[in-house]
Amino acid sequence: MTFTRYPKILHKNKKESNSSFLFNFIFFLIGFLLTIVALNIYKPTLLPNELRIVSLNTKQNILVLGLDEVFPNLKEVNQEALWKGRSDTILILSCNPSKNILNILNIPRDTKIKIPGHGYEKINYLNPVGGPYYTKKYIEKFLRIKIDHFVIINLHGLNKIIDEIGGIVIDVPQRMHYNDRAGRLYIDLFPGKQTLNGEQAIGFLRFRHDNLGDIGRIQRQQAFIRSLSKKILDPVIFTKLPQLLSIYKKTILTDLTPRDIIKIANFVRNVPSKNQNIVILPGEFGSRKNISYWIPNYKEISTVINKLFYDKRSFFRFNRISPHQIRISVFNASHKDRFLASKISKILQQYGYTVCLIQDYESHLSKTKIYAQKANSETALQVKYDIGNFGEIITGNLGPPDADITILAGDDLVKFVSKVHK
User: Hey, which residues does 392 pair with through a beta bridge?
Assistant: First the structure.
């Protein structure tokens, strides 16, 4: 008997084993890479920072300036003139990928500041004085935060981008009708949820003829931001982003690279709405030499900055906040009870809260929303419990700026209020 052929069989099996291992390894590697790419696009929070290829892996603060400069013929305008105007919109985005939180601070354009060599001015004058880098440095010092990048958007680019993505859905809170030939502004919107094209969306943002003036515009900016963030959740829209920014780069100026923009956009689209906090810079209306200003409240600003940018949030405590310190505005968005806002106000007043406004809301809402207007979610939570534990808490602004909390009362509160008033 000979055994000369057994080594050949073993050698053959060894080759088959090696090739099988190589095939399995390549298959696993491809699967692993595809999983990493998919998670980067759809669930980057499940990945460690080192593997976040197309999403943020470090905290970033970004200054966004929107310029309300309208030119009759954009082709004849000097390119630099697009970036020299006053900033109609001033936002600071704080992107925190480790906690998957997006915080946005709205700075009213009428905020009173003192500019060296110019005296007291409105903050929207910073850009004409020194451009985006000067604006960035001044706001860093003003708020005591670090700003990593800036973006300037001219309205000529924004309206076209909105058209390109198919418009955005906005709940228009009131009738808006205004024509200004000189400013090339034509607004004709009716209340209710609807899809706005680029021109309509710009009109929604620029409309100023309401009781709250610039603060009303900021509240509409917040609604626009929330709607836009929902829109980019669509994978088709997200894949268009580099192309959109390339097409309209003539009206967008930034120190961000295309790769940075993709990372930020991918981060934003993966932040749930409950983790999106938008707050107006605390302050109040005032005037100096017959010029209206937004006067900063530096004590409240310090609290808001610590919460939004330094994550110094107070965790839930069982100690109640004194209701006498809390001002609340109530809007009736229910179709089932036209006296709902008044009834809720009476309940709140029995607890000791100060109700500063009772008003009807033109749009209908089935579920209540409670707005924590000064990033004071712990206060909003207390109010929520006092009205039967109804309502979704949103860090944002809807009511008058002096209110701490605004309740947008929906149909779900009708039964609770009826039981209390029996």
Answer: 369
SS3 string, 89-122, reads EEEEEEEECCCCEEEEEECCCCEEEEECCCEEEE
Of the candidates 337, 225, 206, 234, the one whose C-alpha atom is nearest the C-alpha of residue 273 is: 225
End-to-end CA distance of the chain: 104
Q: Do 118 and 254 lie in a common domain?
A: yes
pLDDT tens column, 345-388: 999 999 999 999 999 988 888 999 999 999 888 899 999 999 99
DSSP states along 7-24? HHHHHHHHHHHHHHHHHH
DSSP reduced 3-state for 176 = strand
Answer whether residue 20 is part of any domain: no
**23-37, 166-180, 248-262, 277-291: which range is least confident on average?**
23-37
Verify that 131 and 184 share a domain, yes or no: yes
**130 Cβ partners below 8 Å, 6+ apart?**
138
What would the pLDDT profile of 220-229 be if each residue is shown by its tens digit?
888 888 888 7
One-letter identity of residue 233: L
Dig out the tokens for 98 from the structure. Answer: 């480790």
Strand-pair partners of 407: 330, 370
Q: In terms of C-beta density within 10 A (0-12 exposed, 13-18 middle, 19 or more buried), how is residue 401 classed?
A: buried
pLDDT the model gives residue 32:
43
Least confident segment among 69-83, 148-162, 183-197 = 69-83
CA distance 107 to 110: 8
Beta strands in 258-385 (DSSP E): 276-280, 283-288, 291-296, 327-332, 354-360, 369-372
Cα→Cα distances 26→16, 20, 22, 30, Å:
15, 10, 6, 6
Residues in Cβ contact with 58 at an 8 Å cutoff, skipping those fewer than 6 apart: 49, 97
Q: How many domains does the chain have?
A: 2
User: What angle is formed at CA 83 by the lines to CA 82 and CA 87, rounded to 5 degrees?
Assistant: 110
User: By residue range, what is the domain housing residue 239?
Assistant: 60-309
Residue 420, both tokens: 């209390």
Domain boundary among 264, 279, 309: 309
Query: Torsion angle, CA of 45/50/51/53, rounded to 10 degrees?
Result: 90
Looking up residue 346, the CATH number of its domain turns out to be 3.30.70.2390
Return the pLDDT at 47. 45
SS3 assignment, position 406 = strand
Q: What is the C-alpha separation between 335 and 350, in angstroms, rounded?
A: 25
Do both 112 and 241 map to the same domain? yes
pLDDT of residue 342: 94
230 and 169 both lie in a single domain = yes
